[in-house]
Amino acid sequence: RGFRKSKGCGCLSFHKRSISSYEDESTSSCRSSDAEVQVKAFRNRKIKPEGGLLHILFPRNLFKGWRRNNELSMTKIERTMKAAILIQRWYRRYLARMEVRRRYTWTIFQSIEYAGEQDQVKLYNFFNALLTHIPTTTRSTSSAATSKSSSIDSLNFRFEDESDEVEEEGMQHVERKYRGIHINFPMKRSDLDALIDAFRKRKQHRLHARYVAGILRESITQLKRLPNLNQASTAISKQVTICGDLHGKLDDLLVVFHKNGLPSPENPYVFNGDFVDRGKKGLEVLLLLLACMLVFPGGVFLNRGNHEDHIMNSRYGFVREV
């Protein structure tokens, strides 16, 4: 019985030992295989270039909150940039639309203006052709009037005759009741300043007809001495101021003189035609330009435009203003 017990105990102990050793070997082999799989996975996994060292040293859960905040902030920045780009796009589109509208408006206005002038020229040519083809019997009666209105020499002659008649009527002396400015001939800088001041302040006393006729007469005498082509020198001033299309805008002319200074050989001006018509102060503008030319002969150059014509002046208001 004791042997059996010992044998039985020995078998039991042997079996227990073999079972426990088998379990230890199986668990150790599983652990080793798991470790090898983990090592291979660790070796084979791809490490991102940005923050790779931090990902290795620290767990990923540590940066989850920070990464979410960063993603949200980047989304707000992107939205802000997209909104700014959209606003810029719409604003540029608005500017382009306004520029196209401005160009179309300018083109339409220019075409209307030139169409009216071309119609006036066509009408003038039509009546001129009619007068040319009228028989000599009727043309002889109106030859004097047509010749005077068509030639420049006859216009100058008529102006000289009118000025002589004015002097004969007693207008060579200014009346005592006249309260306006007085101008001496030949004109000087002080006379020009007085004329500009009178026009700028819009004094109630008009410029006397004697002074107007004197400015016109002196200007005609000086313009006849000039050639058709005049040279504006920049040797002294290094610049030339060009003004065009005043059209009777006295305020614009005074602003130019205020900002850029009066004309002089050191500050030459070129007035590029269209002095009168449309504006309400065409006569004042013309007198100021002629006075500047008389005071500064080498500082003012006047070019004739299409509105320096009797037909254009009759249609666009300068004749009525005078």
From TrEMBL:
PROSITE patterns: IQ, SER_THR_PHOSPHATASE
EC number assigned by the record: 3.1.3.16
InterPro entries per UniProt: Calcineurin-like_PHP, IQ_motif_EF-hand-BS, Metallo-depent_PP-like, PPP_phosphatase, Ser/Thr-sp_prot-phosphatase
CDD domains referenced in this protein's UniProt entry, alphabetically: IQCD
Keyword terms: Hydrolase, Manganese, Membrane, Metal-binding, Transmembrane, Transmembrane helix
Enzyme class: hydrolase
Family matches, as Gene3D superfamilies: 3.60.21.10
Keyword Transcription: no
Membrane-spanning parts: 285-302
A Pfam family assignment: IQ
Molecular function, one GO term: metal ion binding
Cofactor(s) listed in the protein's UniProt record: Mn(2+)
Ranges where the Serine/threonine specific protein phosphatases domain occurs: 303-308
Catalytic activity: O-phospho-L-threonyl-[protein] + H2O = L-threonyl-[protein] + phosphate
Family, similarity comment: Belongs to the PPP phosphatase family.
Protein name: Serine/threonine-protein phosphatase
Species of origin: Photinus pyralis
